Amino acid sequence: MAKFRVFFFLAVLLFASSFLLQVARCQSDSESDADADLVAETVEEGRVSGAVGDDSQNFEGWNFSPASGVETVCVFPKNPSKLVVAGEETELLIGMKNEGEQNVKVLAIHASIHLPYHHMLVQNLTAMSFNNASVPASVQATFPYTFAVSKYLQAGTFDLVGMIVYEVDQLPYQNIFYNGTIEVTEAGGLVSVETLFLISLGFALFVLFGLWVRGQMQNLSKKTKKVAKVEIGTKTVDASMDEWLQGTAYTQSNKSKKKK
What we know:
Blueprint lengths: L1 H44 L24 E6 L7 E3 L4 E9 L5 E11 L6 E4 L3 E2 L4 E2 L3 E9 L8 E13 L2 E15 L7 H32 L14 H6 L4 H11 L1
Parallel strand pairs: 2-10
Antiparallel strand pairs: 1-3, 3-8, 4-5, 4-6, 4-7, 4-9, 9-10
Helix pairs in contact: 1-2
């Protein structure tokens, strides 16, 4: 009975976890849709074009504050789950909204990978610089950014920090357009954490169910093996009966049979 209760509890837990994961996916999708709508607005306003320079410049030491009236948003197009395959390119769309009174001159976009919780640098990603890209006042624009993590990076959860560097009135500023987690997977093995959790939980339920069935079979076999005991012994003759029968026809007949 106790095993059955445990099995029932784990089954309820599996159902609840699946429901919660679906809710989380829906919330994530809704947030991604909201960001996508904002980026779509910037696309309607017009994609800013500008000559893209080389990526040899190092932006690691740059640390500027954001300018007033400049807002940025980021979306992973066709990739709301933020799954990044090691060694393969991943595309981002960065929307910039200039609500200030002066033009914004976009200088570069760069990003980096960090260990979660510790924020230890793992990899500096490709830096993309612009020679002539600007966003006029009261205008929205989008900038594509493509990066690829090292193919030797171990699969797991990492923090992605993306920044866009720009100038307003010849003063440098920067906005963090994304500061969140991504899931890095090996090439050819696109398995998310939640999928592994469901597989592990399902396997545990299967093992527990097998143990419960085995216990029931053992109890059934023990009941069938209970057989009534039959005692088989030799016949004994009381010595007092022999003395009482001495000299009777019974003893005489026995003696005659022995002589023969």
